[in-house]
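Reopening closed ticket. The problem is back. First fold of the pair:
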Amino acid sequence: MHDWSPLISLATTFADTATTVTTASNALPPSQTRGWQVICVTVLCSTLAQAFKILTKLIKTGKLDLRMLAKTGGMPSSHSCCTMGMAVSVGLIEGFNSVSFAIALCLAMIVMYDAAGVRRHVGLQAKVLNEMLTEIFSDHPRLSTERIKEFLGHTPKEVFVGAILGSVIAYLFNVWAVSHFAHV
């Protein structure tokens, strides 16, 4: 016969631990059970910013271009929107003097600097390279006609508008979430 007591003891310990964790999570302050809001705000900000790009292009050109949902660059910056939305959401939940907010804000600032700086300049360099390739290979149509992607980064205005949009979305979403899920 087998001695099942070690296995039964292990199962009992596991059940006791699961009960303790469940009880402890129910006792957490509301700010520690609202991570879902940060994730929702981040996804919502990115989606809305990309949708605004379609609207912006429609207003500028009169053409509906659904491919803008998946393209980089343009008004507003979706990277700036979602990272500032995340930072503001963390600030509203954890407090604007918390370490979590400081980390989120620093990440947002790095992303915005990169979008308006490095990525934008790479796009400008790609434009120059494409012009050079066109001139060099214009007499040789069978040689590479593939162009380097030029529309990578953002202007400072696009980054700023994205950051403001993300902040507004985060504020509105968190106010809505608190009013509808105050018990969470």
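Second fold of the pair, where the issue appears:
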Amino acid sequence: MDGPIYPFATAGLIVAYFLAQVVLRKFDPFAPVWLFLVGYIQIYVIQAIRYHDWGVSVRGETLVAEADWRALWALAWFLAVYHVCPGRPAVGILPSPPRAWSRGVITLLAPPLVIWGLFCAGLVLRNPNDPATLTSEASLITNFPFVMMVAGIMLIVAGQQANTRRTPFLLAGLGISFAYAAIWMFNGKRSHSLIAVLATLCAWYLTRRKRPSWAVLCSTAFVGALVVSIALGWRNDRSHPRSFDGFISFVTEFDVARILTNLNLADADESITTYETEEYGGFLLMMDTVPEKSGYDYGESYLRVVSTFIPRVIWPSKPYYGRAAWISAWQAGSELEREDDFTGPAIGLLGATQLNGGAIGTIVVLACVAFGLRLAYEYMKRYADVPWVQFWWAIFYYNAWFMVVCDDPLVWFYYNWGFTTFPLVVLMWWVNRFASSSASVVGHAAPGAPLPALRGAAALARGHGAQGA
């Protein structure tokens, strides 16, 4: 094989799927499959093509071809399960969401969440490169900055209900969301900044019961890439003072062409000799070492979804499930020497499933991911007029991207979402379940109310998105 044929086939499959959804008027930009595919394109198309020659030189042509073929059939399998699985019937057995949305509770809850988030951001800002200088308590507190963004989405949802709009709530929510994105660009954290863009866009349109136009979607893609590039560039910048004035100067001088670097379309440093620290490179390493040189973890890492939330005060000897197998694989196949305390780059979805159990592990895990995402999406569609669902979906759906680009498809939950967002989502469920029908409670639309503007491409074709742009 002379070139990376399979990555081009993977790209062709994604393009064909996209066109089919548009032609059939089923395209919905807030369906989780699209952010899943964005991550897939970055790793298994763009990186696979750009790093092909390096991969062949390090891992051999046969293994690279096997890995690229794995990426192609794994995507086809994911899409098949996503569309064939009984997501809609399964939603029927799930409890219906609370239809109330208490503005009184949000008024009390949002300010302390914003203050907490700002405090976390301030601690990170004062200790950007040396977290060891923080006390154990301060280090724990810094893990909760996202509660500020949760408060912003709460307020947007409260302010945008069609039957009782409240402009102050909406403006406060948008201001908090924009401030969150700016703060975390200044702190050099790309994921936080990108999440702010995606969550705000979703909350804005879901609450208006519309979908964005193609122009808005393209603009959002550019803005998302821009905030990521600015955050990364500022993190690595050494030519400006680490101050507000220095940041403004950096932004005004920022070269937009650097976006290509963060999309893996250009090298940040021409002297780079290895790409194993990129997700595709980690995938090749796992394909090369597991199980011939290092064993499977058999999904042990997923136990962290539970173990992470058990304090070491209660379980002092708590292991870091799955880490031993991950490190062993790196030590067995890395181009560099890796110590036992090695903590390094993500291996991507398919690297994780290879470590879980090879091809069989890939089939099982991707089927679970596809079914889980489809079930969540069908639940959102069924109750899309309910404020609690609008709130939940706006701060959940972007995790489909994290499922592809991190260490494993559940890392989003135990790394951030499970302790910063999930408790608040559950709290708002129960608070609104028992909320009274007072003037501060909104969202009493009839269950299952038709939402013609939620029909993806059909809404775009009719121009609904332009009204809410």
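Update: turned out to be a display glitch only; the data is intact. Residues 101-263+409-467 form one domain. The radius of gyration is 23 Å. Please close again.
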